[in-house]
Amino acid sequence: MLVYVPVPLSRVQLGKPLPVDLWTPDGRLLLRRGQILQSEAQREMLATHHACTTTADADAWQKSLQRSMRQMLADDVAMTAISRAPMPWEILDVDYLEGRDVAGSWLDLQEILRSLLYQGAKAATPLPRLQGIEEKALLLLQRDPDEALFVLFQALPDLNLGYCATHALLAGVVCALTAAKLAQPEGSPALLLRAALVMNIGMARPQDSLARQHQPPDPAQRQIIVAHPPTSTDILRGYGLHDAELLNIVHWHHAPEAARLASQELTHLRLLNLADSLIAKMAPRISRPAMLPLGAAKLLMQDNNPGTALLRPAMAAVLGFYPPGSYVQLANGETAVVIKRGLRANAPHVASIMASSGMPLSQYLYHDTGDAATPQYAVRLPVASNTVHVRVSLDKVRRLRLQHGM
Questions:
Q1: According to the model, what pLDDT value does residue 94 have?
Q2: Closest-CA residue to 357 (of 383, 377, 390, 332)
């Protein structure tokens, strides 16, 4: 889970755009980056809510302040004035990640990736940063694929986190797991993950805006959507990326059947296209609810494209009908969150978080929904995330899995 750090509100400048998102300590958004702190009364309101920012934003903001103070020192500004220097209203992209040193877990990766995607063609040292994100993601995925799916499916409905980065990571994870299940060549999971991370870099900010707007895309937005694959490819070339297969996959990820590629490249392209479409269906928008994973899996299997006939069942099997992080109702009426895939697609391992009365459970209860000896814990039906008003604790889920040898 994200760790939040208190903001030095007394040093935040009035009348200047905020360079970071401001949150409550329990993760509720107070002000979005780019908004302006207008008055002392607003500052006091933020203090009342104990305004915080994420660790990555706090570290980058501090680096930006240190750079500003060094410049003031070089300009012979008095030390008393330097010690009272306000927090900068701009953070440079180089403040976020130096080299390939990426720490933390999936939500930390999500935040670092979002910063890179937002910066687009203007990103500094993008290739080492991208490499660091990719290597950390592959390490976390190898360590615990069920936790990867759990954290990212839990994050998917939270549009405040930035949909573009969550979508990219989840599509990459699904591609990598499917490639491994299909026994694709050794480098396939890493290639597909990298392609998923950057496929929408040409429209990252618009992608997040579209997810939050009530009305359909206007003509200008539709043009951005249509143009983003080649735009993304151009940005990657500008980074100095010359991997022809990666560039082809990104360029054609919305039109795989139009590509004229070698067999293996086409397989990779089709996998990314399937994952991209699947995650988009399961992601909510302000303008429409998310499709339940079970419905998305059924649509995936009903597709009659002969070119993906072997790929679609593998991807459906990787996720199951109820992927980790999604919600189900059990036969006994309890509401549960899926914590691990089961031996069968329709029989996951779950943690009950709400009693049949609808009251939250202070202690999560583990159930194997595929155990024939306990039919009361079988899955009755899937549950939409927007109807579950309980904040799920990853720490509790981890402890429960550990207790039951998962």
A1: 61
A2: 332
| Cα 322 to Cα 182: distance, rounded to the nearest angstrom | 21
Instruction: Output the 3-class SS for 90-137.
Output: CCCHHHCCCCCCCCCCHHHHHHHHHHHHHHHHHCCCHHHHHHHHHHHH
In 262-351, which ranges are continuous DSSP H helix? 263-282, 293-302, 311-319
**Cα(192)–Cα(137) distance, integer angstroms:** 12
DSSP code, position 215: S
Picking from 170, 160, 113, 137, the residue whose alpha carbon sits closest to that of residue 293 is 170
pTM for this one?
Answer: 0.79
For 36, the 3-state DSSP assignment is: strand
Residue entry with tokens 């993906």 = 308
Distances (CA, A) of 60 to 28, 35, 239: 21, 18, 22
| C-alpha–C-alpha distance, residues 380 and 54, integer Å | 38
pLDDT in tens, 247-298: 999 999 998 888 888 889 999 999 999 999 999 999 988 888 899 999 999 9
**Rounded to whole angstroms, how far apart are CA atoms 239 and 112?**
17
Q: Does 1 score more than 70 pLDDT?
A: no
Angle between helices 311-319 and 263-282 (to 10 degrees): 40
Distances (CA, A) of 287 to 112, 226, 390: 27, 20, 23
CA angle at residue 249 from 300 to 129, to 5 degrees? Answer: 110
* Domains, the chain: 4-89 (no CATH), 101-319 (1.10.3210.10), 327-403 (no CATH)
β-bridge partners, 17: 36
The Cα 166–Cα 386 span in angstroms is 17
- Gap between the Cα atoms of 75 and 70, Å rounded: 9
Which residue has 């002392």 as its token pair? 40
Largest CA distance in the chain: 77
- Give tens-digit pLDDT for 330-389: 999 999 999 999 999 999 999 999 999 999 998 999 999 999 999 999 999 999 999 999
